[in-house]
Specification:
HIT family, subunit A; binds 2'-deoxyguanosine-5'-monophosphate; alpha+beta
Length: 114
C-alpha cells in the first residue's frame, strides 16, 4: 500500500533494525520501545487491521506468532516470559494500520494493560 510505513519497512524503502525476515513476514525493533525487548512482527502483505483477516490469513497469523516465539527464544526470553499483543482500531490503541504483533519482554509485565 502506497503510504503505509510498515509496507515501506517491509520493502526496505524505510530503514528499521530488522531481526528476522522471510517470504511472509518481517520483524524489526520498535522505534518507541515499551520494554527492553520490543519487536514488531508484520506480514509483508498489507492487511490494515485484525478485522480485515479472512480464512486464507489464518496460517499467516499463526506464522507471525511462531516467529515471535522464536525471536523471544533468540532474545533469551523463552523461560523468563514475554508478552505478545495485537492492537485493533482506536480503542485497542492501534496507530499504524498494517497489522503487527508486538513482542515485549525483558521486564515484569503488568496486568491489566493500560
Ligand atoms: P500500535 O500502536 O499497536 O499501532 O503500534 C505501532 C508501533 O509502531 C508503535 O509501538 C511504534 C511503532 N512504529 C511506528 N512507526 C515506526 C517506524 O517507522 N519504525 C519502527 N521501527 N517502529 C515504528
Amino acid at each position: 500500500m502506497n503510504n503505509c510505513i510498515f509496507c515501506k519497512i517491509s520493502t526496505g524503502e524505510i530503514s528499521a533494525e530488522k531481526v528476522y525476515e522471510d517470504d511472509q513476514v518481517v520483524a524489526f525493533r520498535d522505534l518507541n520501545p515499551q520494554a527492553p525487548v520490543h519487536v514488531l512482527v508484520i506480514p509483508r502483505r498489507h492487511i490494515a487491521t485484525l478485522n480485515d483477516l479472512t480464512t486464507v490469513d489464518e496460517a499467516l497469523v499463526g506464522h507471525m506468532s511462531h516467529v515471535a516465539a522464536r525471536i523471544a527464544g533468540d532474545e533469551g526470553l523463552a523461560e523468563r516470559g514475554y508478552r505478545t499483543v495485537m492492537n485493533c482500531n482506536a480503542e485497542g490503541g492501534q496507530t499504524v494500520f498494517h497489522i503487527h504483533l508486538h513482542l515485549l519482554g525483558g521486564r515484569q509485565m503488568g496486568w491489566s494493560p493500560g
